[in-house]
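Record type: ASSEMBLY
Status: queued
Input:
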Amino acid sequence: MTAAGGVLRVLGRTAAAATLDLASGGVRAAEALTDAGTGRISTPGTLRVEVILLSDERGRPVADPASVAPALTTADRALTGGAGVRVRVTGVRVVPTPAPAAALDARANRALLLDDIIGRTGFYRRHSSAGVAPGVGSPVTVVVIRSITGRTTGCSLGLSADWVIVEASLFDAGDPPHYDETVLAHELGHALNLPHHPDPDNLMFPASSPPDGLRGTGLTRWQAALIQANRRVIPGVRRSGNPPTTGGGPRPRSSP
Ligand SMILES: [Zn+2]
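Status: finished
Output:
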């Protein structure tokens, strides 16, 4: 689980994405903190997520599509509770075409970044619906693959990709030494630009050891502000004016 610590990579599209994030992000992060200070109410923001499951050489899906539901619920709870951002699942589908070996059994972290640069990860891109021009509200695609080398079970390239990969064994509830609902949410955190955090109760703690040593799903206030500011997150509706009243009488109207 890991990856994108330092996100300033020398990739054209990464630089473009970083610029986008800084331009809209700085302002929105400041607004989010202002909201927290003044008690103004915003409805939750939305992060769109799609899940695709690859199929092996014989055309068998690497996992049951229904098995990813608990991890998606965990991600929604973590981001809604910790950052006021809902996870809206736009689809969970199997790619029936047998995936090439490099896509089915991926390399991790730096090797994956290298593979991405030389085009070995094209299969993920072709089967995601993110499109080629990510912008505000573009979805993150979670790709469920058969295996990742070493002890890594999930990987994200951070800003430089619109997809994250997670290993199928994470979703097998009948396999307690591997079953881990936190990894999907952790990789979404990386896709939203969050680096690792040293607190084991935090969602971005680097390690998680099922069944007894799972990382937590907490988020700090700053992590919440970064998530809310990310270009992938569709902002919630902001309400201007006075805090809501609790008594009778006319309430302040919200503006769009
Ligand atoms: Zn990580």
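Annotation: The pocket of zinc ion is lined by residues 1-3, 186, 190, 196, 206 (CB under 6 Å).
Annotation: The first helix runs from residue 12 to 38.
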